[in-house]
Amino acid sequence: MMISPNSGVKFIVPAGAKGPLSNSPLVNYALRGLERCWLPAERRWSHVYHLDRPASPNESLPHSDVFYTLNVLLGMSRVAKLPADIDLPEIFYRNAIRLTALPVRKYAFGMALWAAAELRLPVPEPVRRELKAVFSDQSRWQAFRAQDLGMLLTGVIAQAREGEKEWLCFADPLYRFLKERFHGDSGLFFDAPSGFRRRFASFATQTYLSIACYQYGEFTGDASALVMADTCVRDLIALQGPQGEWPWFFDAMSGRILDFYEIYSVHQYGMAPALLEWAERFGRRGARDALVRGFNWVLGHNQLGRTMLVPELSLTIRSQVRKGELTTKAPRVLRAIKNVWLENGGELIDSQDVGVRLECRSYELGWILWSFGRRTDLQDLSHHVAFEQSACPAGSEPRSNGSALG
Length: 406
Known about the structure:
mainly alpha, 14 helices, 13 strands, 45% helix, disordered N terminus
């Protein structure tokens, strides 16, 4: 890494930082997929598109739809050319204002801050009031999970970077809370500030808190934040599976994998690349190779030997999951507890016992837009032939033979 706590920050401008002049096939693939997830009456993208329910694929859960929509808008902030009928300010305001009326977690407010900054749009006043109430009462922070804290800190820094200095006074306290209560000696991040659940941390835990530390460290010049983020990325790369799989569940106390499954496509093609883009910028060795290996998992370099794309719909398959655990998380929870108790490490299982979850969520496509919207240096991925296939017209059915759903 090119920084140390006792030296100035060494910052490397990433490849493609100014953005391409046109969309890559990968970005257009995600945009086509998002057309299928669009709920025109509600003016938002859906909670889930069920790939095995062609008659009524879109399922709406308003509190989830709204958060996912803000995530998609964040991704669209990096896209060179958007469809002409997408009114970013209108969609943002309509959905951000709903945060105060729906049972959303605080990370949704963080996403609103982040997306507003990237889109250079004002934050609705009711959302501002709610956020400032949360930030000003640190007793409420005890209920934060990692995703809450990570997105809130990232949102605050994103706003400050765009000149909205009113948020900057909250950055240092949020970062201190992260450093004191969420960072473990293992190098990985905890999922909560206290309690039994704290040490059971997901890949998302590591992603959101590491991105927040990179954002905070780069903006403030605090090298300790950059060191924490870099250490976490280093450890994640060391734990990446043999075919690029990003494990799902960790013991943050010991730094061990508790369970590889589910292996989520969005981690492989979206969230890991978002994190590893930062790691590349600060010179983390192996970050680019880890990104490429993880992405290739989606293209079929995985233990099932199958693509996780649905080209005829321009969508993706959500995950590879243990058979028998599609409808319940109980075995996964018990397995994690057992592995902590017995000090076992999670391992990949026989492929005969692995299936796929046939759904796609709109935020997953949003992460493709964010992670690849401005990159011009990964054309083996962004211009892969899998994304250049012609999409079927909207409403057409998947092919019965040779379909990616088979």
